[in-house]
Amino acid sequence: MSETQTLACSITDAQGNYLRTFEAEIDISPENDLLVRGVLRDHRFAFAHTWRLRAPAYEVIEASAQQLAGEFDPSLCERYAEIKGVRIGRGFSKTVISALGAQPGAKEHLLLAIEMARVGQQVYQYTPEFEAQFPQGETPSEQAHSAWLKDRAYMSLANTCYAYRDESEALFVGRDIRCGFASELTRPQPGEKRVFWRNKRLTIERTAADGAPHFLCTSAMEDRIHDIKIEFTLGADGRISDAHSRGLRLPYHGICEDPQQRTPSLNGVQVTEKFVQQFAEHVGSASGCTHLFDLSIDVMRLFDWPESGR
Fold first, then answer.
1. For the domain bounded by 8-13+198-304, which CATH number is listed?
2. DSSP label at 93?
3. Which of 98, 165, 203, 219 sits CB 3.0–4.6 Å from 295 for a disulfide?
């Protein structure tokens, strides 16, 4: 990024700021499917999506959408039903894009569909046969270790983040580690209501320092397992300052705090159009936290970059 080029948020309200919220909850149907409902809002629109999701393949059995407010073409909601049959994973976004087309509003529906996919995979449905493969554990750390083993096996999470990397297994011996979630979350019963919920809030506030624009960026997520937030200031030149994060509720207390300490390494980074790789290096990948990475990237995608290629 040259010295003459400045960064700008691509979507702002009349005051030059931005706010986006996401709210979701999951029920269990009488047929034992996951009923996922989510709402995404900013100053331009409000969309609601509803899925019937079947685990463990996490296949969308039924999908519907509703436009609650906004300027986009409501016919996109009718086309959204065509994502039926898609599975969460590789090719998910491509399927949604194919169903919606390229008209205005399709990108926003895709954003909500991605949030639906993220939240939908938070509810597990362990069978007695699956759980019988793992030790029960007597102490809190032993019980946390058993839950960790099940997580990795059920969702193929090995080495996807710091908590689930192979090397973290040794930490269960030397630390007091406790689960941040109840075991009932992995054994939801047919007909059970609100077995999982999630709220997210993303804000970009335009400020000024020394006559140059700056953007205070905050991205937070709270649900039955997590309460985490990352915040940083992004200069118009793309340089990050005041980066910090916190985790008040975490899946594995005693482990998940470690990657939070990496967040200040973002300070001084000159962000480019290759921000995905940059944030993976500093807060994501197998040494970091998947959620901190996602929360950060959700912010960065709202900026216009002087050059393409990301």
1. 3.90.1010
2. H
3. 219
- At residue 236, the pLDDT reads 87
pLDDT tens string 104-147: 999 999 999 999 999 999 999 999 999 999 998 899 999 999 99
Confidence check: pLDDT of 181 > 70: yes
* 269 pLDDT higher than 90: yes
The domain locations on the chain are 8-13+198-304, 33-123, 128-186
Burial class (CB in 10 A: 0-12, 13-18, 19+), 305: buried
Distance CA 279, CA 66 (A): 33
**CATH architecture designation of domain 33-123:** 2-Layer Sandwich (3.30)
Q: Which two tokens stand for residue 271?
A: 């962000």
Going from the C-alpha of 155 to that of each of 56, 151, 158, 293, the distances in angstroms are 9, 6, 9, 19
Give the Å distances, CA to CA, from 97 to 8, 13, 53, 270: 26, 26, 19, 31
How many C-beta atoms surround the C-beta of residue 144 within 10 A? 23
CA terminus-to-terminus distance, the chain: 14
CB 213 within 8 A of CB 236: yes
Instruction: Name every residue whose Cβ is closer than 8 Å to that of residue 98 and which is 6 or more positions away in sequence.
Output: none
Strands 227-235 and 240-249: antiparallel
Looking at residue 210, its pLDDT comes to: 67
Q: How far apart are CA 284 and CA 259, in angstroms?
A: 9
The pair of three-digit structure tokens given for residue 119, joined into one six-digit string? 């939240």
